[in-house]
Write a structure and sequence with these properties.
Blueprint: H1 2-11, E1 14-16, E2 25-27, H2 43-62, H3 68-79, H4 81-91, H5 97-107, H6 119-137, H7 139-153
Antiparallel strand pairs: 1-2
Helix pairs in contact: 2-3, 2-6, 3-4, 4-6, 4-7, 5-6
Length: 154
């Protein structure tokens, strides 16, 4: 019975994307809980974290039993600067003032400018900063935003 209780408890902390053809559940307890204050982190650090979180989410979203080159091609549709910029535009009307501020800080960050004035790269950095921020502050909100973004993308 102990195993069943652990499974039930685990499901309470999962992100479940019903619209994903794979019905992937991610047990958030798998990852260590960072001991940081996101409001005190540099925006480039939030974007760094957001890049990793979003890459994993996108790869799980498209996961299928196909060749790795096909998986890579499919995931690039989302994780590229064009894809992330498009996702940001699709979710921007859902963002509250704090989230919009994080995005704007990401767009204006030093890291976003490393490709000059490439607007798509700057917007993708803002998107990644938002993902990193939400991962640290509100995983439920992160799940809602990513789900909406992926639904509107396709």
């Amino acid at each position: 019975m102990l195993l069943q209780e652990m499974l039930n408890e685990s499901k309470q902390h999962n992100i479940h994307d019903e619209n994903c053809s794979n019905n992937i559940e991610i047990d958030l307890r798998l990852f260590p809980e960072p001991n940081v204050n996101p409001d005190e982190m540099s925006i480039d650090s939030l974007a760094y974290l957001g890049d990793a979180v979003f890459n994993l989410y996108a790869k799980l979203h498209i996961l299928a039993d196909v060749k790795v080159t096909d998986l890579h091609r499919r995931s690039n549709k989302y994780v590229s600067r064009q894809g992330q910029s498009k996702l940001l535009k699709s979710i921007s009307h859902l963002l509250d003032e704090k989230e919009k501020n994080v995005v704007q800080r990401g767009i204006n960050s030093k890291g976003a400018r490393k490709h000059g004035n490439d607007r798509l790269y700057m917007e993708s950095t803002g998107f990644e900063a938002l993902i990193g921020y939400l991962y640290l502050t509100n995983k439920k909100r992160l799940s809602e935003i990513l789900k909406f973004g992926f639904e509107s993308f396709e």
